[in-house]
Amino acid sequence: MAIDVCWDPETDQPPARVAAWRSMNAVTRGDKEEWLALFAPDGVVEDPVGPSGFDPEGKGHHGRDGISAFWDKAIAQVERFEFTIRDSHAAGDEVANVGTITTFLPGNYRVDTDGVFVYRVNEAGLIQSMRAFWEVERAMATARQVAEG
């Protein structure tokens, strides 16, 4: 497990940045219930934004049930995640993180997804929306089989 971030979520950080860090941390540990608890009851996940294999209509995954189904379809299928956040821009109740998510898939495949990951929180610090801007074709172009080790 690796999270390469440039902030400490226990210091005085904007709530959206803290929520983003907690989200990435829960994903790397495979803790679905902890991850779901970070979202507002009416929260939405768009990952990626627009139509995709995870969301053919491009309308996002709404509410805890929809977000839970997204976990089962997209996150649970990955053996391991690594997040490398190169930059983070917090403003108001949102944060935009620029970085790479590396996914390790069954069969020793690895995919690097470069993108901008935007989190917006509500007054309670719960994630109201998570929008991931990345291109499926660009990510799939990085797919490669790696040696076991």
Topology:
Layout: E1 2-4, H1 15-29, H2 32-37, E2 39-46, E3 61-62, H3 63-75, E4 80-91, E5 94-105, E6 109-121, E7 127-133, H4 136-140, E8 144-145
Parallel strand pairs: 1-4, 2-7
Antiparallel strand pairs: 2-3, 4-5, 5-6, 6-7, 6-8
Question: What would you say this structure looks like, in words?
Answer:
This protein has about 150 residues and is an alpha+beta fold. It has a single domain (about 1-5, about 30-140), classed as Roll (Nuclear Transport Factor 2, Chain: A). About 25% of the residues lie in helices and about 40% in strands. The protein contains four helices and eight strands; from the N terminus they run βααββαββββαβ. The chain has helices spanning about 15-30, 30-35, 65-75, 135-140; strands at about 1-5, 40-45, 60, 80-90, 95-105, 110-120, 125-135, 145. Strand 4 (about 80-90) and strand 5 form a beta hairpin. The longest helix is centred in the first third of the chain and has 15 residues, at about 15-30.
Would you kindly provide a brief summary of this structure?
This protein has 149 residues and is of the alpha+beta class.
- Helix content class: 25-40%
What profile does the largest beta sheet have?
A: 8 strands, mixed
The CA-CA distance between the termini, in Å, is: 15 Å
CATH fold descriptor:
Nuclear Transport Factor 2, Chain: A
Q: Which spans have pLDDT < 50 for at least 5 consecutive residues?
A: none
Q: Which radius of gyration do the C-alpha atoms yield?
A: 15 Å
Domain count: the total is 1
State the assembly state of the protein chains.
single chain
Number of strands: 8
Order of H and E elements: EHHEEHEEEEHE
